Structure formats: C-alpha cells, structure tokens
Amino acid sequence: MITDALVIGAGTAGLTAGIRLAQGGLRVTVVATGEGCLPLASGTIDVLGFAPEPVQSPRDALPGFLDANPEHPYRIGGPAGIEASLAWFIKTAGPLGYHGELSRNRWVPTVLGGLRPTALVPHSMAAADLGGGGEVLIAGIRGFRDFHPALLAANLSRAAAAPAHPIEARATLLDWPGGAGDMPPFRLARRLEDAEIRRQLAAQLRSKLSGASAVGMPAVLGRERAAEVHADLERRLGRPVFEIPGLPPSLPGLRLFDRLRRALLDAGGRLLLGSTAISATHSHGTVAKVTITQASRPVEVSAGFFVLATGGFATGGILRLPDGQLREPVFGLPVAGLAAGQEPFGDQYLAEHPLDRVGLSTDADGRPLGAAGAPHATNLYAAGAVLAGALPWREKSGEGLSLATGWHAAEGIVGHRREHAA
Amino acid sequence: MSMLMETEGIAVRASLDGCIKCTICESACPYAAVTEHFPGPKTVGPQEERFRHGPLSADWSVDYCSGCGICSRVCPQDVRIAEINSRARAQLKEQRGIPLRDQLLARPDVMGRLGRPIRPLFNWAMGTLLVRLPVERILGIHRKAAIPKLAPRTFRQWARRHPVRPAPDRVVYFHGCSTNYFEPRLGRMVVAVLEHQGLAVEIPEQGCCGLPLQSNGNFPAARTYATRLAGQLRRAPRDIPVIAASTSCGLMLKREAREILGVEDPALVDISQRTYDIFEFLLNLHEQGRLKTDFVPVELTVAYHAPCQQQNQLIGKPALDVLALVPGLRLVELDRDCCGVGGTYGLKREKYAISMAVGDGLFADIRQVAPDLVLCDSETCRWHIAKATGFPVIHPLELLHRAYGGR
Fold it and tell me: Which of A25, B71, B236, B361 has the largest count of CB atoms under 10 Å?
C-alpha cells in the first residue's frame, strides 16, 4: 500500500491531522484498530478548565499555564496554534454548529448535575451555559436508565457558579410513546427522528414548562437528522432546548465522529478501521514503512509522512510491560514522564498517578524524540493523548490538545512539502 | 464445545478479556439501531458469553445478528465480537435445529444445481407473487426479497472451453457459486481483465466456500465445504495468488474459515495467506507500475458502496483507487456501513423489514446522488440494493472491464 501520509489513530487528534493533510493536498490514509474516543465523548471541546483553579478565560489563562507547565503539549504551536486549530475545527464541524470562543469558558451541566467548564459546544448545547444562572426544566424519559432528572436538577440547584447567579432547576419524567423499555441511547435517537414521537413528548412537556427559560434533555436528540430534531423541539416548546451528555454511547460524540469521518472522505482521505499498526521500518533517519494488520496477512504501507495518534496509556498508545518498562508499541519510542524506579501508581485511586502524565516527548514541531534526545525520524509526528506532560481529565484540556497538536502536525507536514516543492 | 479446543478458537474467545464494555460496537451496529430483537453486539456477545457454558445456551437474540462484522472492526480493543457471536449462533442452532429454509438458503450450489434443469420455470416462479406468497408462507422466504435469476449457461461451462493463455505470471481465479450460476458474465470479465494484464488465469474445478452454511449456523458442513475448496484451489500450481471477486467468499478463505469455523487444515491456511480481492490485487499491480492503463473514457456518474465483508478484509477501498484512473468517470463514495441484506439474513420473512430499515440510509444516499450506476463488490448486496432502489447495481470490475473497452 502506498500513500503520501499515514495517520495512525482515529480519535480527535488522528482525524484532525488526517482531514487537514487531505485538505492540504496529500493522499492520506487514517488507520486505526477501531473507532477512537469520539463515540464515548461528550461532543464538547474542552481547552483549559482548571489551571488548577477554575478558568474563566482560556485565552487569558494559557500563558501562565504554559509557564507553570513548560512540558505541556500545548507548547507545540502555543496559544496561536490553539486559536487557529479551533477556528479550523468550527469550520470543519460545519453543520453541527459549534459555538464558543477562547475568551470565555461555558459552564455546562454534567449528567449528575455538576457544572463543568468547556470552550466549544455543539448547537444542541448552545443554551446549556448555566454559568449565569437561570430557571431550567430538566426532562428525562421514563425507563431510560442513564439519565435521572430529579438527581440532576437537585444537584444543579446547588451547583451555581456564584451566589449572584442562582440556578433554579426542576425535574420531570416524560412517558415515551409505547414505553422506552430498555432502549439504548442510539435507538432513542433514531426514534426521535420521527416527528410523531416528538409531538407526543412536546405535548407532555408544554404543561410542565411554567417559568423555565430553557429545557435540558438527555443527549439523544437524533443522530443523522439531529439538527432537525433539535430545531423542531425548540419550535414546539417555544424556548431553547439543550442536550446534557451522559454515559456512553454518546450521541454528541457520535455525531462529531460521523461529521469528521465525512470531512476526511470529502477531502479525499481514506479511513481504514479494524487494522492495527504493529511495526515500522526505517531508512536514513526517516520512517520508510509501517506494517499494519489485515484479514489474513500483514501489509506494509509506504508513506512520505507518518502521524502517530494512538492515544495514551488508557487506550494502548503507551504500554506498560510486565517488567514495568513503558513502551510505545509501533515505533518503539522512548516514553517520558516517569523516572527510573519511580512507582507508577499513587495510593488513592481517584487521585493523580505518576503514570497519568507519561507519553512521548517531542521537539518544537511535534516530532517525537528518540533515545538520543533528537527527533526519532524527520518524517514522524505525534499528536493527542500519546504526548507526555498533560493531565487532560484534571485540566479539562483533552479535545483542545488533540485538536491543537493534530492540526499542528498536519501544518508542519504540509509546510514541509510546500518548501520542497518550491 | 470441541471448537474451543482449537487454537484460533481460543484466541477469538480470549479476546473477550479485552472488552471494557465501552459500547462502541453497540453504537456502530446498524441492526441494534433499528430493532429491539437485537440488543446489540456487546450485549449478546461479551456480556452473554459468560452464561454460555455446557447445556446453557444463548437466547434467540443472537440469531438477529447478521454477521456483518462491523462490531469487530470498530472495537478499539480488538475483541472478536462478530466471531464470538457467530459461534454462539452455531451453538444455538446445534441445540435447537436449523429450519429447512435456512438449510436451503445455505446451499447456493445445491440450489443452482437443482434449479438449472428447470431454469425457465425457476426464474419465472421467483418473479411472480403467485409462487412467492406460498413460498413465504411455507418456507419463510420473504415475498419481496431479491432472488437472482439463473443464467442460461454456467461460468464453469464457459471456463471448461476457455483455454488458459500461457504467460509467465499466473493466478488462480476463485469465482464462487454466485458467479457460476447467476452472474457468469462477471466471471468472464474478471478473466478478461486479468488476461489483459498479461496473466495466465487458472480456473480449477471448485465448489462452495461454505459461507452461507456458516452464517446459517451449520458449522460442520461449512468446515467440510471450506476445506474441500482449499484443496481444489490448491490443485493449481503452488505459490500463485488466488483472486476472488466475491468479497464475502474471499473473506471466508482469508479469515472466517480459520477464525469462526476454527479450520486448521494446512491447505486452507496456505490458501488464506495468498487470497486477494480482485481490486486489492489490481491496486498492487498498479503500485508496482504493472497495471495496464489503456482506458477509454467512461462518461458516467457512479456511486460506490463497499460492502461489509469487503471492509472486513481490512484492505481499504482499492476499487476507488483503481477506478480513479479511469478518465471521464465521476466517482462518488457512499459512506454507509451496511445495505442490510447480510448474505441470506434479509431474505428471511421475520428479518426482511429489519434488513430494509438498515439499508434505509444507503438507499436514500443513492437516490440523492442519482448515479448512472451503483457499484458494489458483493452479489447479495447488489441484488438487495437493486431491488430496493431500482438503480442498476454492478460489480466495480464490470465498470473496469468497460473502461478497458470491453462489452
């Protein structure tokens, strides 16, 4: 198999790099063992939520955050790179209608009724920002196990960002026409694409609205025709409706996956799911080929450029071998972040563990370093959670760093090609 | 179960350990999205597998899995979900028996052989409600399900009189049952396109690969078929590529016979290592600079649907890369996973509506593109899509044949 660029990994970082490379005129194949993080993700784009204090403006907080965390992947490309990648993302996500700006975090409800900071939200969550308080109605579906409006509303009323901005949240349970039974979110979503079901749910909701300025619902408002489902519910209720993402499968994440996958194909890229990159061959300081699995025999993929976006320790991008050694499995790259002999795990399960920050070190362009401290290869870039030095779950920086580093890797490759062509 | 003693079987089942219950397979499953009968690949697979011991069996829901394999492909942990579910289905059938209908549908070679002497009657009967209604009532084959027409001459009749054109580079052509009985034209085009590349094409005597038997839960018969076929294909000279244009049958040789049926016969292992999808093979030739590109312009808009079993070969979509070389062609990639037919799944009375609901998105996309032709590598998918949309659906190889100036 021959291609201009091979991207390994189909999460946010891999798809971003793949689309951007294809848009830059390269023949691109994105290969991944399976679907990445997106079907499990909330669909919001976190950039910086805690540093470690709650962040109101990621734009204002980033310089200080980078000073305090000089090894953080955000240093690749810096704040300007983050800004550019977000602008590109909003355009690429197109019909999902992402809202937001780096100057102000939005505070959106979690499925348990907490508020969490995020930078960008899809249109279906445009009205979810409760940082300024307000009166909302939380509507669940009777029988749907993953969304409990009474619990959510009670917690939300306590979660207000400031005493000056109280949240008044009420809860209601809707009866699904014919009974929701044990329906998973994706089937509820598909059924909601039927206008008759929406009519019946909206009819129940209208009598419960009273003073609520917006209605929060589980994030099951359609998949392919989500925009139509959302707009129709708002029209029937005469006020904003917002989705509250919960346990996976997550429709907002799936919609984003569908959209990015389509954008990759539209740009001429190829997506190969189910195939795992297992090893690489090198020649003269470059990666020449990567071997990937197929149904009956492995095959070598030749490419001019490679982007490694396989995720961190949690998703197999970094392995910890039985002898305690950390290893990046495709290229055998050295893993940074844990000193020799240091215990990888702390005492408290939910606290930070030393292992959380491990990953690949890179040069300023995002090329992973080899054992000698120089880039492992001139044509190999790394992006996303495989990079060392971040704590996305605590910083609330996961999507932002995948977007920024995936985009930056692609920009580097496109620029490099342009220089050589000139 | 004896099958668990086999090494591939152990590897497939051991992959369960990797399941973190993330639900990615469930949200990707086109069947779980549309029917309550199928709760989802994780639910009937990694979750229920722990209850499948000794006399205990899976419940019927596993029978509503079509075997499309999308779950295994999207699993980030590489759990062999579809394979595990296929095995569970076979266990269920072993305990409860396989209905006559499924026994029939599972043997296209037998159907072809029996139908041939009464070909005009068979073709007429399958096209008239007068017959299809009782067939639905008695056998359970849905009256609207697409049944192909038997061709006047089999591919083998043609192949027997078609001398192998001597050339230094040789290939074996594995044509499959459908090409033999229903679409011999496609077989002749495959041979013509391969010969155009300067290759000698060997077409050994060959039977069914056993895939329909496998998907209908008859593993013992499927193993016999697959092993016999491997032996037949191996009668041709060793070490030369085996080319398949039927993607599901190709996948059977490449992987499913080993992973699902647990066949460890050395002939099959050997054949599986050197089986190529026709477009995988042609793209390899192109990458080596050996593909003939003497194309005539084809001024058409065509929409390509890569069927599940083509995607499960994990070779990408080589048909798109090869057809991109044809001047004049406007090629649209349909980004849908499954047409819904699942081999013989969509022919069954109780599953036909599910099958149509699964294909809904694909059919809508086709109507929107309104192409001159739809391209799809798998025969049962072609028949299903053609019937559901009214658009002509051909194998992408037919279009390539046309681009080489063929008729």
Answer: B71
- What's the gap between Cα A235 and its chain centre? 30
Mean pLDDT of chain B: 93
CB contact under 8 A, A186 and B32: yes
The answer to whether the Cβ–Cβ distance between B23 and A39 falls below 8 Å is yes
Residue-wise pLDDT for B199-251, tens only, equals 999 999 999 999 999 999 999 999 999 999 999 999 877 789 999 999 999 99
Stretch A34-53: mean pLDDT: 96
Tell me whether strands A99-100 and A120-121 are parallel, antiparallel or unpaired: antiparallel
pLDDT tens by residue, B274-322: 999 999 999 999 999 999 999 999 999 999 999 999 999 999 999 999 9
Q: How confident is the model at residue B56, as a pLDDT?
A: 60
**Shortest distance, CA A247 to any CA of chain B (angstroms):** 10
Element (H, E) at A169: strand A167-174
- Give the nearest partner residue to A34 out of B24, B32, B36, using CB atoms: B24
If DSSP codes are grouped into helix, strand and coil, which group holds residue A50? Answer: strand
String of DSSP letters for B297-335: P---EEEEE--HHHHTTT---HHHHHHTTSTT-EEEEE-
d(CA A54, CA A116): 9
Q: How far apart are CA B344 and CA B347, in angstroms?
A: 5
- pTM here is 0.95
Which pair of tokens denotes residue A416? 């490099």
CA atoms within 13 A on the CB side of A25: 7
For testing the chain A interface, which of B27, B209, B239, B279 should be mutated: the one with the most A CBs within 10 Å?
B27
Mutate to test the interface with B, among A296, A310, A313 (most CBs of B within 10 A): A296
Contacts of B374 (CB under 8 A, 6+ apart): B302, B303, B304, B305, B366, B385, B386, B389, B391, B392, B393, B394
Which two tokens mark A290?
């990567």
Helix runs in A9-126, H state only: 12-23, 58-68, 78-92
Nearest to A295 by CA among B227, B258, B142, B347: B258
The yes-or-no verdict on residue B58 having pLDDT over 90 is no
Q: What are phi and psi for residue B63, nearest 5 degrees?
A: -70, -15
Range B156-180 average pLDDT: 96
Radius of gyration of chain B (CA): 21
The ipTM estimated for the assembled molecules is: 0.94
Query: Do residues A49 and A131 touch, judged by C-beta distance below 8 A?
Result: no
Task: Report chain A's mean pLDDT, rounded to a whole number.
Answer: 95
The whole-angstrom separation of Cα B307 and Cα A42 is 30
| Closest Cβ opposite residue A272 in set B26, B253, B316 | B316
Mean pLDDT lowest among A353-357, B158-162, B396-400: A353-357
How many Å apart are CA B5 and CA B195, to the nearest integer?
44
Chain B neighbors of A18, CB-CB under 8 A: none
| Beta-strand pair A326-327/A380-382 | unpaired
Percent of chain A with pLDDT over 90: 88
Q: How many CB pairs under 8 A join A and B?
A: 102
The chain B residues in contact with chain A (CB within 8 A) are 22-24, 26-28, 32-34, 36, 39-40, 72-78, 251, 253-255, 272-273, 275, 287, 311-317, 320, 333, 335, 361
CA distance A83 to chain B (A): 30
